[in-house]
Design brief:
about 25% strand, CLCA_N, about 160 residues, 8-stranded mixed sheet, 4 helices, alpha/beta
């Protein structure tokens, strides 16, 4: 078994107004996906537990992806974009990353799906989605494992952008 080295970059989002909508650039090199952007909604209060949970879920997702692809792919580099008012952690300034361009949004529950992870997708099956939506409660609460199974596996098998 190979240990997958997953690096996380924590960035502070400088401004949420007048955001240009675009998509992040996810690339693959030497079987590792880089450039995945996870953004935390500005309404979510600062929580080191949430940051740790995001890291844990995506590290597990990387291992699940590596296994599912017969050791052909894994997540190598992921950026977590935090709201600008978060100041308890050590964060790098955001560059061109924006909330609206994120591949994964961490936000409060959708009225329809509640805490269930989902992918916003307008196209047909097999076409890329717009973003994956995860809630803070889903990420930090272990009781969801009983409903959806291991979080890393669930993200890889049911939520794809």
């Amino acid at each position: 078994m190979i240990l997958v080295n997953l690096s996380f970059i924590l960035c502070v989002l400088a401004c949420f107004k007048d955001v240009i909508v675009s998509s992040s650039i996810v690339t693959i090199s030497n079987n590792g996906y880089s450039g995945l952007l996870i953004a935390i909604n500005p309404e979510v209060p600062e929580s080191s537990q949430l940051i740790d949970a995001i890291k844990e879920v995506w590290t597990d997702a990387s291992k699940a992806l590596y296994t599912a692809t017969k050791q052909r792919a894994y997540f190598d580099q992921i950026t977590i974009l935090v709201p600008k008012f978060w100041n308890e952690g050590t964060y790098q300034p955001a560059g061109k990353e924006t909330y609206d361009a994120a591949d994964v949004l961490v936000a409060y529950p959708n009225p329809v799906y509640k805490d269930q992870p989902y992918t916003l997708q307008y196209g047909g099956c097999g076409e890329p989605g717009t973003y994956i939506h995860l809630t803070p409660s889903y990420l930090v609460n272990d009781s969801f494992v009983d409903i959806f199974g291991p979080k890393g596996n669930h993200v890889v098998t049911n939520c794809t952008v």
